[in-house]
Amino acid sequence: SLMLAKAKEEWDQEIVDKQSEKERYLSERITPLHTSGLSLSQLQDLCRELHEKVEIVDEERYDIEAKCNHNTREIKDLKIKVLDLRGKFKRPPLRRVRVSADAMLRALLGSKHKVSMDLRANLKSVKKEDTEKERPVEVGDWRKNVEAMSGMEGRKKMFDAAKSPTGQ
Where do runs of H (alpha helix) occur along 30-150? Predict the structure, then answer.
């Protein structure tokens, strides 16, 4: 907590220093503007001068921004070239290593591990049931079914069969 308090104090002091440096720089660069007692033509000339200065500063800002964008693109291209020159790194094939639970616990816990663990002893045994033997398969004569369902009687039977489960 003491270190955090000291860091916060230094950070606050740095902010104050930056602000004072900014004010000092602006006071050096920017002269106070005296417009009192000037005629209309003198004010217009002053405005023209200010516009010219603003245009010059804006052109400089644009040039610097273009240079910065160009440099960032060039840095990206160089990074890509460096990666290409390095070549692709092939990962070596990993081998499977069989480790028992006891060896794993010994590696993790060190000499503290003295109890051997048999994980398979606690598993439940499950019987596989034959569900196919229990299902009765009904085999009938398909011709009888087709003859019974043909015509209007068959459709009525189908309608009644579909209607009866919902009716109950």
Answer: 40-86, 101-109, 131-134, 142-149
pTM for this predicted structure: 0.37
Do the Cβ atoms of 113 and 106 come closer than 8 Å? Answer: yes
Using CA atoms, how far apart are residues 31 and 75, in angstroms rounded to an integer? 40
Query: Does residue 139 contact residue 155 with C-beta atoms inside 8 Å?
Result: no
Q: For residue 34, which phi and psi values (nearest 5 degrees)?
A: -105, 110
What are the average pLDDT values for consecutive 10-residue runs of the chain, which has 168 residues? 93 97 91 84 92 95 97 95 78 78 75 61 67 57 62 64 60
- 102's CB contacts (< 8 A; 6+ apart) are 113, 116, 117
